[in-house]
Structure formats: structure tokens, C-alpha cells
Amino acid sequence: MIDSFAEVEHALIEADIIPEVVPSRFGPEALLVVSWPTGKEATLGNTLTALDTALAPSISFTPMITLAPYDEVSYTLVMTDPDAPSRKNPRLAQWRHWVVTGIKAPHPTEAVSGHLSARFTEPPVTPYYCPAPPPGTGPHRYVLLLYREPAIGLRIPPDAPERRNSPERRAKWDAAAFAEEYGLKLVAANFFYVVGPEP
Question: Higher pLDDT residue, 112 or 170?
Fold first, then answer.
């Protein structure tokens, strides 16, 4: 379990996710919990298997203070691999695994009772593609980023790169550039490793 914002920032720096994926000016505003149907969780750099993470996870996050009512604020979740095809040779990085918009925080009364599961209100822009590091490529970092969407709403056009979801179209993506283009504010992050099989 993640205990503090300082722990998040330290782990991201230690893993070089700051500044490779996340801007160095990032300061977490929430704690992001990512849980798979297998019962496994991402815990700031733990190692999971492809089988552990085969199906799309659920997410939860600690409530954040915003000026708008909770149900007027939406979030976008991204999962990306900066180590494609390997950390030593990331020529295909980042590889886009998942983009979901329109995520809603739990109702405040649910948060008080400890039920922090987020609500997915839109179909994925990029459907979940489970981690599958190529053989012999070592450990890959899989980074999950939670962004607050702009108050005016978010619309990803039908011809946007994030909607081109064949495997070859997911490569050479940039989460920070995506966030800047759509006015997204990064509020939480988490990550885990999956190791490629032996060749």
C-alpha cells in the first residue's frame, strides 16, 4: 500500500520515470491504487507477471480537493511502457497500453466508508493491452498516470493517434505531449515491472 506523496515522488525518481515519462515539476495530489482481477496490485515498482496483469485492472484514488463538485470533475488514466522494446534500446517508446477518459471519483460518502473505486463512464479510447515484454528484453516499467481533465470537458477526435490501436500504431507515443495537447493535469502516478521471458 502506498502511504505518502513523498513516497510516490521518491519511487518515480529512483526508477527514472521522473524525468523520462513524468515531468520533474510533478507533485502528486492523490494516491493511485491499481488492482487486477487476480488480486495483484501495483505498488510503486513491484514486479508482476504477464498473467497477473492479463485483464484490465480497476483503479481507486484518494479524494482530491477541487473547486467543482466531485461529480463534475473527470479524470483520464494512461498506462504506458517507456522500455519498448527494451530499456537499453527504447526505440519504440513509449508504447501506449491504455487510455481511458471520463473517470469519476467515488461519491464522498463512499470515500468516507473506504470504498474508493473509481467509476468508468466512457469506453476506452485505447483498449487495454496487457504487458507482454519481448523475450530477452529484461524488466519493463509500466507506468500508470492519472490526469484531471479540463473543466470544459475532454473530447478525443476520431482520427486522434490514441484511437489507432493496432500494435504498430501504439508505439512511439508520448504521455506528456498527450497531456499538454488536451490540457490534462497530472495528479497521481504508480508503476510496476514485468520481466520479459528468457529467449
Answer: 170
